[in-house]
Amino acid sequence: MSLLLSFDIGHSSIGWGVLSSGKRVGETPEIFGCGSVIFPADDCLASKRRGHRRTRRNIRATRQRIARMKQLLRHLGVLEGQALSEMGHPAPHVLAARVLISNEPILSWAEIWSVLRWYAHNRGYDGNARWSRLEESSEDTDKEKAALDLMKKHGTEGKSMAETICAALGIDPLSAKISSAKPYKTLNAAFPRTIVRNEVLSILKSHVGHLPKLDEDFISTLISQDEGGGHRAWETIKVPDLNLPKRYYGGLLFGQLIPRFDNRIIARCPISGEKVPNKATREFLYFRWAMILGNLRVNGRSLSSDQREVA
Fold this sequence. Notes:
The chain is mostly helical.
């Protein structure tokens, strides 16, 4: 008896089936066995590739974020090119904590830039609100829980990421000490985005009227203050040669691109010529199932209309 082996290869599983080859044209093949082999996530090559790709995206996005803020500060004329490229303050989290504790405008533009660059690298975790369907992982949520536990441990609940880091490292932000033998990155914590955004907002607002060009428009350009109307917040101050895609949402510091699965190109039905239904509807799922059946081959032949109807 001639047998037909069929495989459905996925990124972390392989489906298999054994069928009779069929003796006559149009004869429905007999299924002798089928099943699937599922690989654990840690054993799947695609899982590692996905992690590396995510890291590359984060690095690229951070570099772009800092470059755009440089363009803004250069356009405002508050810092020269050399000052924008210097290393900056060695402990920007201490500077941020000092402002948050004292609520006084004690920073210069150069120090504000050091703080903003630090927050560009440490924006906090937003639960992957716009990527949760594809990108959210248990590792991220564990880091967020670790951050909340850290705040509870050091009595900084309801305060800020900067103050919590200083407390964890044994640094008094109001003292002259700014270093610790233990780097804060070993804390393995990701603070909630809302906490981080609020502390940046407090730092900037405390300097309004005390530093030239640091006003409400500057804050809005960096931080969307209105979640409903902040789609184009980065355009509050028009910066020459700074153009972002229409799917970019928010300010220069906390904004991000809307994921492509919310911006897909809508295909047209090959039969009716009309646009296919929305991806979240039952009709679209029926359409995709019909496409899968139409692409199936048994013994090198497409399924007949009767066979597709049965399926």
